[in-house]
Amino acid sequence: MKAIPEPSKRRLVLLERLLATYTEKTITSQRIEEIAGWSAAVVRRDVSQLDIHCGASNGYKVADLRNALKSLLNLDGEQHKCCIVGLGRMGQALLDNTELYDTPFKIAAGFDSSVNRTEILRSTFPLHPTTMLENIIKEEKIQYAILTVETQEAQPLAARLASCGILGIVNYTPCVLSVPPTTKVENVSLLTALETLSAGLGD
Q1: Distance in angstroms between the alpha carbons of the first and the last residue of the chain
Q2: 52, 54, 73, 200: which one has the fewest Cβ atoms less than 10 Å from its Cβ?
């Protein structure tokens, strides 16, 4: 499959979530426009980049479209191990998060610079001091990291994660991380999101 531009990829991720609760057997690009707000032309262009052969005139078959999206998003059953790096308030909130239940993504470990936190906090997966980060990631074959550390720790830990083969980092910090091209970064900082929403509103 050819490389899909990031804006299209983000819309396709959301489209898969939309279709997960859609009850009809077919859906048109116009209907997707009504629900999601993207223009029908944009929807057709995004879907055309998938390995799927169906006409858009009478609507897409939801089952076929979902299968193509699952293939794109690697949601076809293969498990992807993740870890949480930083067990402060944000990290602790994620310990009990149920969003990843029934998905291919599994949190396999948590890390914190405070040994006391790793010993006191309770979790369904093991918690370790960050001194063990490289060894555990290698042993557990962890692919993705959720970074929730303090600002001053963000870049050094991101560099360590990238150096031990982490494919992607979900960055909950407000820092702009510098990592090699082999490690992707998805920024989900509350501050960054609010600044993005407010940008240009005063014009």
Answers
A1: 41
A2: 200
